[in-house]
Amino acid sequence: MTTAAERAGPPDPALPVMVPPPPESAWRNWRDNTSPLTQGLFLFLLAGFSVLFLYPFVWLVSASLKSRSYVFTNTLVPQVLQFNNYVRIWHAAPFLRWFVNSVYIDGLAAATVTFASALTAFAFAYFRFPLRNLLFGCVLATMMLPTAVTMIPVYLIWQHIGLANTQYPLWMSNLFGSAFYIFLQRQFFLGIPREYFEAARMDGDNYLTMFWRIAVPLAKPALIVTALFEFKAKWTDLMTPLIYLHGDSQFTIPRGLYALLGQYAPSAGGQGDYELIMAALVLATVPMLLIFAFGQRYFIEGISLQGRKG
Amino acid sequence: MAVTTARSSAPAGPRSRVRRWARGFRERDTWWAYAFLTPWLFGFIVFTAGPMVASAVLSFTNYSVISATHGVGLANYRALAHDPYVLESLKNTLIMTAMYVPADMLLSLLLATLLARATRMGGFFRTIFYLPVMTPTVAIGSMYLLIFNGNYGLLDRALSLIGIHGPFWQTDPNWIKPGIVVMLLWQVGTNTVLYLAAIKNVPQHLYEAAAMDGASAWRRFRDVTLPMISPTLFFTFIILTIYGFQIFDQIYTAFYNPSNINTSSDSSLTYVIYLFQQAFQYFHLGYASALAWVLFGLIMIVTIVQVVVSRRFVYYEGGR
Question: Which of A123, A221, B48, B208 lies deepest, with the highest CB count within 10 Å?
Answer without folding.
Answer: A123
